[in-house]
Amino acid sequence: MAARSLWRTRTKLAVAATAIFSGGAAATIATSEDPATAAKLCTIVPLRLARDAVTAASIAFDYEYSLWGLPEGSIERSKVKHEVHLRSAHKLQELCFRNGGIYIKLGQHIGQLEYLVPQEYVQIMRDSMLNKCPISSYDQVCDVFKKELGETPDKIFKEFDPVPIASASLAQVHVAKMLDGQRVAVKVQHTHMTDTAAADNAVVGFLVNTLHSLFPSFDYR
């Protein structure tokens, strides 16, 4: 009986993962008008969506399998649930760091949701996300400039420090000097953010809602 239920759980997770992977990737790639960007998205978006699906499936299955048959309110269930919360929070943390961008923002937000999500998630995200943000290389910064302005920073500014003075989840800041000598701070969005943000937003929301529909007790919407 338990084995059949767990098999049904695995099947539902596989179907959900397939839907997320194929639907999200196709929609995002189809909206790109630039051939070069579309080619990159053919690799980047499916990979990110695959990570999302695998992580969500792993977390949901861990809750279902680990808590199976443990009575509500029992000491054993509380102990096991704490361990599952820790494992799942670390999996989510790894996903946020690997995908970057809006996922870092999501992790930072979870780190502020004390009393709304399990403390294990809050503590792990707070300890790891609030002071650790991705840094785009100078080559990636140049790619953003060329895409948005048609020129590299050295063509636009008299001076441009390739090392950022600060970095956040969505962008980083460089010090530069205008042609007239005025010093300015230049905020540069992390590479690929424009291309993947819409898909990331949709997929994160879809993952949370899908997991809740599959497992009503998994409700972090």
UniProtKB/TrEMBL annotation:
Residues 129-219 form the ABC1 atypical kinase-like domain. The keyword Lipoprotein does not apply. It holds the Pfam family ABC1. One of its GO terms (biological process) is mitochondrion organization. Coiled coil: none annotated. GO terms for cellular component: mitochondrial inner membrane. It comes from the Eukaryota. Residues 1-27 form the signal peptide. The keyword tRNA processing does not apply. Keywords: Signal. This is Putative ABC1 protein At2g40090. It comes from Rhizophora mucronata (Asiatic mangrove).
